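Bench log, entry 3. Co-assembly request; chain sequences pasted below exactly as received.
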Amino acid sequence: MELAHPARSPSGVLRNRDLFDWLYALALVAGAGLALVRYGAFMDIYDDLILLLHVPVLIAIGWYWKPFRSFLAAVAGLSLASIWLYQGDLARAEQVFFLKYLISSQTAIMWMSALYFMATGAYWLGLLARSEFGEKTGSTLVWIGTAMGTAGLFARWYESYLVGPEIGHIPISNLYEVFVLFSLITALLYLYYELRYGTRRMGAFVMVVISAAVAFLLWYAFSRGAHEIQPLIPALQSYWMKVHVPTNFIGYGAFALSAMVGVAYLLVERGILASRLPAPRVLEDVMYKAIAIGFAFFTIATILGALWAAEAWGTYWQWDPKETWALIVWLNYAAWLHMRLTKGLRGTMLAWWAVVGLLVTTFAFLGVNMFLSGLHSYGNL
Amino acid sequence: MQRSTSKGLFELFSSMRFAISLLTVLAIASVIGTVVKQNEPFNAYLNQFGPFWFPIFEKLGLYAVYNAGWFLVILAFLVLSTGLCIARQTAPMLREMRGFREHAREVSLRQFAHQAELPGGLPLGEQQARVAAYLAQQGFKARSDQREDGVLLAAKQGSASRAGYFLAHGAIVLICLGGLLDGNLPLKVQMWLGGKQTTGGNQLIADIPESARLGEDNRSYRGNVFIPEGRAANVAVVSLDDGILIQELPFTISLKKFHIDHYENGMPKRFASDIIVTDDATGESFEHTIEVNRPLEYRGVTMYQSSFDDGGSLLKIAGRNLAAGSQAPVLEIEGRVGETLQLNHPRFNYALELTGFTPFNVEDMGEGARAAEGAEGFTRHLGSGARATDDGRELRNIGPSFTFKLRDEAGQAREFKNYMLPIEQGGRWYLYTGTRATQAEAFRFLRLPVDDDGSIDTWFALRDIVFDPARRDELARRFAHTSFGDGEDTAELRKRLIETAVNTLMLFGEKGYESIGTFIEKGVPQAERERAADVFVKILQGLVWEAWQMTREQTGQAPLAIDEPRAAYLRDAIAALSDSLFYEAPLFMQLTGYEQVQASVLQVTRSPGKPLVYIGSLLLVLGVFAMLYIRERRLFVLLKHDGNGLVTLSSNRKAIDVDETFERHAAALRGLLDPAAPAPEATPRGQ
Ligand code: HEM
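Structure output for the full assembly:
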């Protein structure tokens, strides 16, 4: 098994850059600069800060994880094309061919959904038929689907301002939007591990949970009309939302990924697909890495949520069902990490625990909104 | 013996297994409070669980789980266990962080999972120099130990990972302590030490005894301040268990105006209170606007826009008698929301409790989406995320509504919600009134059709005639007359129709359509039921139509000719007559006018634990990232005068990248020490 070795010493980081790396960095700096100069008047100090922070973070990700550079370039291209085609007129979504059938937000999200379903099929084909071609196709489809979905969210962001300047907001404010976000983040995390561990064999499993999310998303849009852009209620009009929600979904996405890898682990252990899937120690390692990153981000997300609650509701913690379930999820994975540290508790037990963890996480994410009432009012089904 | 027990306990509490169990138990215990709704009035629980379980659950503290003794004990165990864990780990961890273990013996190095032989051949000094240079370049700190058969270079990196342990686990203790300061406990301790006691909720603030008042020196509280527009308040209400306490504030808040802005689609856009804060000590005052997500802090107290309510709007109400057959005059009532009025009427001894008023009600009055199928259905979901224009939804403001309760002499109350203006549905207009017996139910609506003038007078006039036993015969006679004329030849038919009509009115007067249905089910064979029902409906329609003409005659208006809109009105009127028999109120209350007064509810808090919690949170994040992402690695390179060397690696976490790191270092070192290799300057850095 071949693992990618990123450069370690600081000087090495700069020395080992290729031309594309520098172009990528330059494009990010130029893009941010342009945004600041042209739209600075519309942004407050937080917007400026977040924009500036994005530059080094995205550069670091792209340098460390090469395919991300092309991905980001594609997303930027698609999003800008969408905005350019709109020319400030929402009705053009119905009139312009490329908007209607490619890069208006809904269409792009439909493309994402279709590509993810196809990718799931391709990965399974690849796994069962031991076809490298199938696996490669799967990965390509996930990349394209993710680019489409991300561009779709950006287009949606823009469209929300076309609906009305006072209605415009970042598209992470209701259950529909966060389901798109969840699918995208889980897919990106998976793609990262795919390269890092040099195996595409886990795709068949991870894409199952993404497909389930997409199926829910489609049902939600088709039967409930949930895809419509809605204005923000007062409680959501806060800067904290913009940081709290994405952080949270890195957590959810990583936990979902670890659970699916856990399923693969349990199968391999029973000899099912054992010759086709990666070795148990690889699966166990991915599971740990995913839970670690999920736990770290979930910790931040919960804290950001508490800071937000302190501002909106007057208390950083008041045992609202959503908060309480976030704590339960967090304690659950804290326990998981400790379990792994104690010798002897490994493997099967941890894999089962990760799978059960997904049930707990899903309840915190969806079940609380469906079955329990509380202050987290968005996204009742 | 004693010593060993306490030592055993110490080991248990500070052990990882205990930590895992605690985290799990705490997670499970937390579930309870999300299943049982917290901090509701005790009456609600009594209803929900019944008289047997209610006291048991109360004893268990299930109505305020997170403040229950047992829950706090679990939390205390977490703090204790984490504290002991830190205490126990401090010495060894510090030793680990500082030390290099350069005295490790070869036998113990040979126990390591990661080890590889290194080639000999170069002079020891040269070997040592090359390895030292390599370690430094790879970011290791190293120390060497000369021994008889050679030298051990003990190197390490990522020791900060251990600092992460102290940060994260110390943070948990901090956060729990901070949370404790901001929770209910300080209040409970004060009550216990200061002899304070909660009191009932429904009394005037001025009447609340000293024993239920908390002074300005209280440092930790969370309460609500209710201020109607144009009024002021300087105390907050703190709810505890099933009672309240009054918290005095060091300033007075007056509400100038409360704002609710809406988006076009009726969703709320902004809640804001224009307030004036006046310092009680200095008399200074200033204006400020508090909004959701934009609190105000003053003199250590933070004020938040928490909710809003009616501040005592003035309602003008016309009460119309629903008792059958009465032609009682309309009752004029005036009162403010929040007041209880005694209905001064010889016929009813009811208390009217005015509970709420809403000036706008935005509802979806559309018919629902036209079902689109196949490709068309799909393409409708392409395009922008803006709302489709033909989705069948139609949001409309249907005007003011108010809620009230009617309580009879026995203390039984029903709740009502009445709309002020007629509401259109399917081209026809109705006045809606909803009723329910308990808060848990949804309102069941009765809709009264309005006549051409937009009023419900006609319907009430119809009702007076149709349900009046004294006028049954007259109505039936007129109906028979209209149906068959005056002729001798139809006398027999008329007589039979009158009989049927009187029976129908009697039946209908009992329970409306329901009694007619029961009658048919009992007396008519299955095959003929449908036809019989038809006949009843026709007769009813004829009767009510006749009643309508009678009402017009009484007021000197010309008779009407039947047409489709009037036939539709007739059907609606009969349906409403039937439903009104289940309305369970002596009066129909119609809102005729209002003056709105709003009130804002601000939450005021003092939370002394907040800084601790925030600092703890920061440390927690730093600690977690340090533990998870700073990788502690120790590399031991044993070089010998004669023969082969040894390299081993240890790490405090098991993961594949540890194997990978080891392979990389081992390969690099083998290359470096290979006598045939070029000079070390040529070794690539980084990779
Ligand atoms: C809410 C409570 C706790 C949280 C969130 C927490 C979190 C963590 C995390 C994230 C790690 C790193 C795991 C890894 O690297 O895989 C860790 C390690 C550890 N925890 Fe906890 N912990 C908690 C409570 C406790 C308690 C109560 C104990 C002791 C009884 C404990 C003992 C340890 C120890 C000994 C380590 C290993 C440290 C090392 O080797 O560097 N933890 N903890």
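Confidence is low (pLDDT under 50) at residues 1-8, 377-381 of chain A. The two ends of chain A are 45 Å apart (CA to CA).
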